[in-house]
Each structure stands twice: as structure tokens, then as C-alpha cells.
Design the sequence.
């Protein structure tokens, strides 16, 4: 069987760096904007946790609201960039994956639940588990519905 980029099996394969560099040329900007956006989103979430700290054993309101607000913004953003605005190819990875992905946090949500259970607050953990899920899904639905209605209203004008 011939080696890649060769006409016969006796010729060495042509493994040159242009193949590798072309991959980074295409994905490099995406990786960069996701990284920068993630740093911004995670910093905003960290700032929120400093402004509104959760007391041991208490309901983790900061993480709850960060996730709910983040889900609302994700819902609105996705409708806008898929149905109303032809965004630059790096807007979605920067804002959707980077900023909002860094801002919302499943890992802290999971740690909060585990901490509540481990410190003897299983009911609070269960309420937090269910309330976050319901509120986050409701926030996405509400944002998608509201933005679509606003866009439809604007088109009729």
C-alpha cells in the first residue's frame, strides 16, 4: 500500500509541516477567542462570588443566579446570532463558548451540592439541584421566546 503523498511504496511519505500549520491557522483564532472569552467569563463569575459569598450550609445563591442569568443570555444570544444577525465567525466561540461558558459553571454547582450533602444539608442540596435545573431551563426558554417575539414584532413594523 503506498504511503501518503507518494506514488509508490518505495518512496518515503511526505509528512511536512504545512498540514499541521494549516490546522492551527484555521483553529488557532477560535482557540484564542475561546480562551480570552473564558478568562473574562470566569473572572466575572469569580467577582460575583466575592461580592455575594455563600455562607457555609446556606443556599448557594450566587452560583444559582450566575447559572440562571448565564442560561438566559445564552438563549437570547443564540437566537440573535442564528436568526437575526450574521455574526463574524469568531463571535459565537468568543461570547457563547468563551464568555458564557466561563461565566456559567457546572463544576461549582456540583461541588456546592456535594458540600451541602457532606456538611449535613441534604435537603438544601436537593432543592438547589432541582431549582437550578428548572430555573436554568426556564431561563433559556424564556429568553428564546422573548427574543423571537421581539424579532417578529420588529419585522412587522
Sequence:
Amino acid at each position: 500500500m503506498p504511503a501518503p503523498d507518494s506514488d509508490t511504496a518505495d518512496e518515503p511519505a511526505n509528512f511536512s509541516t504545512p498540514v499541521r500549520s494549516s490546522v492551527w491557522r484555521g483553529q488557532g483564532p477560535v482557540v484564542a477567542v475561546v480562551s480570552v472569552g473564558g478568562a473574562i467569563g470566569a473572572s466575572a463569575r469569580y467577582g460575583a462570588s466575592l461580592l455575594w459569598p455563600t455562607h457555609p450550609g446556606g443556599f448557594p445563591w450566587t452560583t444559582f443566579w450566575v447559572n440562571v442569568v448565564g442560561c438566559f443570555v445564552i438563549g437570547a444570544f443564540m437566537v440573535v446570532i442564528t436568526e437575526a444577525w450574521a455574526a463574524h465567525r469568531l463571535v459565537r466561540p468568543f461570547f457563547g463558548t468563551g464568555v458564557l461558558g466561563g461565566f456559567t459553571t457546572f463544576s461549582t454547582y456540583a461541588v456546592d451540592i456535594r458540600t451541602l450533602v457532606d456538611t449535613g444539608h441534604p435537603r438544601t442540596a436537593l432543592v438547589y439541584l432541582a431549582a437550578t435545573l428548572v430555573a436554568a431551563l426556564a431561563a433559556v426558554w424564556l429568553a428564546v421566546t422573548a427574543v423571537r417575539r421581539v424579532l417578529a414584532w420588529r419585522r412587522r413594523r
Observations:
- The helical segments are 17-51, 61-84, 91-103, 106-118, 122-156.
- The mean pLDDT is 89.
- The chain has five helices and no strands.
- The CA atoms of residues 73 and 86 lie 18 Å apart.
